[in-house]
Amino acid sequence: MIVRTGIGYDVHRFVEGRPLMLGGVEIPHTHGLDGHSDADVVLHAITDALLGAAALGDIGQHFPPSDPTWRDAKSEVFLVHACQLVNREGFVAVNIDVTVIAEEPKIGPHVLEMREKIAGALNLTVDDVSIKATTNEGMGFVGRGEGVAALAIATIQSRGLKFTE
Ligand code: MG
Question: How far is 2 from 158, CA to CA, in rounded Å?
Answer without folding.
Answer: 5
